[in-house]
Design brief:
This protein is an alpha/beta fold and 277 residues long. It contains eleven helices and nine strands. Strands 1-2-4-5-6-7-8-9 form an eight-stranded mixed β-barrel. Helix 1 crosses helix 2 and helix 3 packs parallel to helix 5. The protein is globular, with a radius of gyration of 21 Å. The termini are far apart. The protein binds ligand C2E and magnesium ion (3 copies). The site of one magnesium ion (MG) has 4 residues, from loops.
Length: 277
């Protein structure tokens, strides 16, 4: 009896796995047409100067509104897009769209675009960045590319050469999600980063947890020593922001200063003279 029950459980497990695989294939299929069908759009989240609270730029975050399933999180669809290679097509659209948008701003704020491992290792990535800047007229130093450390490990020497070429164009490079994944401090020396973004998981309750505080302080010290500005991601409370200000963290981003939203919501920063949220 136990044996047959076991088999039943196994069959159930198999069926569930099958459903997950099918679900993934369906999403992958839909992803291939999502840009052309106008299902993708970009939202923008302000990045601020901790010292005076002014908005210095925006991170671009991709949103997919599926016609039947509604909003699907990038945490779900980006990995599928990466594995299937569709990220190349989608990433190209994101980059062009973000540069086109930023070029219309009367205030010279920066625009930060997330770039995945597949894009970094693709043959024409640098050319694509160059083209996006050239076509839109966006000044290279207004574009920041956000890359996680995990994106570099596939082919480190190739990634290194790509980042150097981007830097030669005048584009800035930020290390995203610092402290998570395959973090190695040596990456900060091996690659030409201009900024460190501390992952939001370290900012949560940084004001209340001594261990977390010690980690964040040490990253800030590392940034100071290397001459790299540090941005704290995921700032949600006044207490977290006060801690960061007291520790001389340069930049912050999070729901406290502003949730990701349509760029029209931020016209007072992009076109007006009010640079504080
Ligand atoms: P990320 O680049 O580290 O982006 C930060 C994520 O934290 C965003 O989630 C943002 O909405 C969220 N966030 C911002 N402030 C707060 C806060 O105060 N509290 C909390 N709890 N969360 C906050 P989102 O938009 O869901 O994006 C998730 C990830 O998907 C991004 O992480 C990035 O790795 C990836 N992603 C998003 N857009 C793109 C894109 O255009 N291309 C690529 N390759 N990846 C993207
Ligand atoms: Mg990012
Ligand atoms: Mg991040
Ligand atoms: Mg992330």
């Amino acid at each position: 009896r136990a044996k047959s029950e076991g088999r039943g459980t196994y069959r159930f497990f198999e069926a569930k796995m099958g459903a997950q695989v099918r679900e993934r294939r369906l999403l992958e299929h839909d992803l291939r047409h999502a840009v052309a069908r106008g299902e993708m759009h970009l939202v923008y989240q302000p990045q601020t100067d901790v010292r005076n609270g002014s908005v210095t730029g925006f991170e671009v975050l991709l949103r997919w509104l599926h016609p039947e399933r509604g909003a699907i999180s990038p945490a779900v669809f980006i990995p599928i897009a990466e594995e299937s290679g569709v990220i190349l097509q989608i990433g190209e659209w994101v980059l062009r769209e973000a540069c086109r948008e930023a070029a219309t701003w009367t205030n010279p704020l920066t625009v930060a675009v997330n770039v995945s491992a597949v894009q970094i290792h693709a043959p024409h990535f640098v050319q694509l960045v160059h083209e996006s800047l050239f076509r839109t007229g966006l000044k290279p130093d207004r574009l920041e590319v956000e890359i996680t450390e995990t994106a570099l490990i596939r082919d480190p020497s190739r990634a290194q050469s790509t980042l150097r070429q981007l830097k030669a164009l005048g584009v800035r490079i930020a290390m995203d999600d610092f402290g998570t994944g395959y973090s190695s401090v040596s990456n900060l020396r091996a690659y030409p980063f201009d900024k460190i973004k501390i992952d939001g998981s370290f900012i949560r309750s940084v004001d209340a947890n001594e261990q977390t505080a010690a980690i964040v302080r040490s990253v800030l010290g590392l940034g100071r020593g290397l001459g790299l500005p540090v941005l704290a991601e995921g700032v949600e409370t006044d207490a977290e922001l006060r801690f960061l200000a007291a520790e001389d963290c340069q930049a912050a981003q999070g729901y406290l200063m502003g949730r990701p939203a349509a760029i029209e919501q931020f016209a007072r920063f992009t076109h007006g003279n009010q640079l504080k949220p």
